[in-house]
Amino acid sequence: MNFYKIFIFVALILAISIGQSEAGWLKKLGKRIERVGQHTRDATIQGLGIAQQAANVAATARG
C-alpha cells in the first residue's frame, strides 16, 4: 500500500515538472507563429498600398 502512494507521488511530481518545461517550449512556438502572422499582415498592408498607388497612376495615365 505504501509503494502505491509513493509511486503516485513520484508520478505526480514528474508530471508537474514535465508540464512546466513543456509550457516554455509551447510558448516559444506560439510567439514564433504570432511573429510570422504579424509579418504577413504588415506585408499585406504594404502590398495593398503599393497596388493602390499603381492603380492611381494607371487611372491618371488614362486620363
TrEMBL record:
Signal peptide start and end residues: 1-23
Q: Which UniProt keywords apply?
A: Amidation, Antibiotic, Antimicrobial, Immunity, Innate immunity, Secreted, Signal
Which segments does the entry list as coiled coil? none
Top-rank lineage group of the source organism: Eukaryota
Q: Which GO terms describe its cellular component?
A: extracellular space
| Cell compartment(s), UniProt | Secreted
Primary residence: secreted
Asked if the Swiss-Prot or TrEMBL record annotates the protein with the keyword Signal, the reply is yes
Q: Which InterPro entries match?
A: CecC-like, CecC/Srx/CECD
- TM spans, by residue? none
- GO BP, sorted A to Z: antibacterial humoral response; defense response to Gram-negative bacterium; defense response to Gram-positive bacterium; innate immune response
The UniProt entry, under PROSITE patterns, shows:
CECROPIN
Q: Which family does it belong to?
A: Belongs to the cecropin family.
Protein name as annotated: GH18419
Organism listed in the record? Drosophila grimshawi (Hawaiian fruit fly)
